[in-house]
Amino acid sequence: MDYLPLHFRLQDQTVLVVGGGAVAERKVDLLLRANAGVRLVAPVVSPGLRERLSGHEIMARGYQAADIEGVSLVIAATDDPELNERVSADARRLHIPVNVVDAPALCTVIFPAIVDRSPLLLSIGSSGTSPVLARYIRTLIEGLLPEGINRLAHYLEGKRPWLKKTYQNVDLRRRVTERFLASPGRELATAGQFEAADRYLQPPGDAVVAGEVFIVGAGPGDPDLLTLKALQALQQADVILHDNLVSTGVLNRARRDARKEYVGKLGGGRATDQKDINERLIQLAGQGHRVVRLKGGDPFIFGRGGEETEALIAGGVPFQVIPGITAASGCAAYAGIPLTHRDHAQSVRFLTGHPKDGRVDLPWRELVSPGQTLVFYMGLGGLGAICQNLMSHGLSAGTPVAIVSKGTTPEQKVVRGNLETIGGLVARMQIDTPTLIIVGSVVDLRRQSGTIGDD
Ligand code: SAH
User: Fold this and answer.
1) Nearest to residue 415, comparing CAs of 331, 328, 355?
2) pLDDT at residue 448 above 60?
3) How far is the CA of 303 from the centre of ligand 1 (A)?
4) How far apart are CA 18 and CA 366, in angstroms?
5) Are residues 335 and 316 in the same domain?
6) Is 117 in the pocket of ligand 1 (CB under 6 A)?
7) Strand pairing partners for 60?
8) Are 271 and 296 part of one and the same domain?
9) Whether residue 305 has its Cβ less than 6 Å from ligand 1
10) Claim to verify: residue 443 and residue 333 sit in the same structural domain
């Protein structure tokens, strides 16, 4: 480790900034955020700096060694290498921390990339090797931190006196806080529900804190289509119950030591009974686990999420539903087909095309009215019946149809035809499930640019 990361409290301290341009501006902005007093020295001072630094010291002249007196930190942000070197040497002689912008060799301290969710602060440094890399990692971390993480920090700060009074033993106090952070209390505090969070601040050995179930939409296939919230849930899961539609790529984003249980169809066999899944969710949560029920697409669109939430309510298990990108949105976007369009479709309907005893029962008369796009989930087996019914109820045989297979994955295929031809086209090709059927004139608007897969 070539550097020791420290968080520098600058309130009531003075920082010397040498330089009067854009680079100095960026540093001054940071210093002001940290409530530092600024002494700025530069022959030419930008209007932006003058504006920012009203109430601070501005010296519009060249740097002099005496400027450094009484300051806690020195920043050189000039484009004159000799001057930068002089400032650095003066600071080091007096053992004052110094940063010279873009010259790690002249620095005793360097600025990290910062994630500022005050009071929570994360600093990411690359020891001067690549600030761009540090900033890249910052964006990755930003995405993982829930929006209200600062509320959690404030909550825990507020609880400190109470914790100290209630649990004199330091170790016990630490364990109570750790346990809280692994419980649903953490989510509640993050969401600002402080009173509800309080009941999870308990010592180990007290009544088992109930686990929690997250019913999570995994999106249609491409793991990058997971929401940030879904990713957070996957990273914190103890157990994950998943089924066929969830891709390996998505499962790979889960916490490494989370237990994964498959509850889908195996080798054409029967799917696990919904009742058994409901019971398993309740059982696992009752054992105190954070359980993720991971479903393809969105849990509330042909996902039986509604049945699971009912069971969880009846079982008294706390739960959250995290929406996902449903197959219709994902497939349409990746196939370049807009589901609505001012000139073509003013509404879009999501339907199940799953045939029962060879029949697809749907309100066909409504479906043939103009200006709408129809999206059939689970429809491949009923494709012939769907096309027949739409035509016999009045849609023209030439109405465009697209079949999207394995949408949003690298194996995505799009087959286009019309109500009359699509059945034959599909029969002649190898089409893998899952597939989605899109019917309507928007299909003809298909644009290739930015899409994957091909007809
Ligand atoms: N809850 C899911 C739908 C589950 S029903 C969602 O919101 O997307 C299962 C059906 O979804 C499949 O039969 C298929 O019609 C559709 N589907 C899911 N993923 C798909 C994909 N990657 N490509 C095409 N269709 C998909």
Assistant:
1) 331
2) no
3) 9
4) 73
5) no
6) no
7) none
8) yes
9) no
10) yes
Total structural domains in the chain? 4
The predicted structure's pLDDT at residue 169: 83
* 265 given a catalytic annotation: yes
The reply to whether 296 and 372 lie within a common domain is no
Question: pLDDT tens-digit profile of 90-100?
Answer: 999 999 999 99
Burial of 1 (0-12, 13-18, 19+ CB in 10 A): exposed
Tell me whether residue 3 is in a domain.
Answer: no
Of 85, 111, 137, the position where a domain reaches its end is: 111
Question: Using a 6 Å cutoff on CB, does residue 334 contact ligand 1?
Answer: no
* 243 classed as catalytic: yes
Which pLDDT score, from 0 to 100, does residue 455 have? 47
pTM comes to 0.70
| Mean pLDDT over each residue of the chain, to the nearest integer | 91
Quick one: 73 and 174 in the same domain?
no
Q: 118 lies in a domain?
A: no
| Alpha carbon of 376 to ligand 1 centroid (Å) | 9
**Residue 139 falls within a domain, yes or no?**
no
Same domain assignment for residues 321 and 425: no
CB of residue 295 inside a 6 A radius of ligand 1: yes
Domain boundary residue, one of 96, 111, 126: 111
DSSP annotation string for 178-246: HHHHTSHHHHHHHTT-HHHHHTT---TTSSPPP-EEEEEE-BSS-GGGS-HHHHHHHHH-SEEEE-TTS
Span of 52-61, 181-190, 312-321, 418-427 with lowest mean pLDDT: 181-190
Q: For residue 246, give Cα distances in angstroms to 161, 223, 276, 290, 419.
A: 45, 9, 19, 19, 30
Å from CA of 326 to ligand 1 middle: 7
Domain CATH code at residue 266: 3.40.1010.10
Residue 444 and residue 352 in one domain: yes
Give me the domain span that covers residue 91. 14-111
Catalytic option among 29, 79, 224, 265: 265
The answer, yes or no, to whether any atom of ligand 1 lies below 6 A from the CB of 402, is no
Q: Using CB atoms within 10 Å of the CB of residue 357, give its burial: 0 to 12 exposed, 13 to 18 middle, 19+ buried.
A: exposed
Q: Answer yes or no: is the C-beta of 297 below 6 A from any ligand 1 atom.
A: yes
SS3 percent helix, strand, coil of the chain, rounded to 5, is 40, 20, 45
- Indicate the top mutation candidate among 377, 414, 438 to test ligand 1's pocket, ranked by most ligand atoms within 8 A of CB: 377
Give the model confidence (pLDDT) of 279-332 as tens digits.
999 999 988 888 999 999 999 999 989 999 999 999 999 899 999 999 999 999
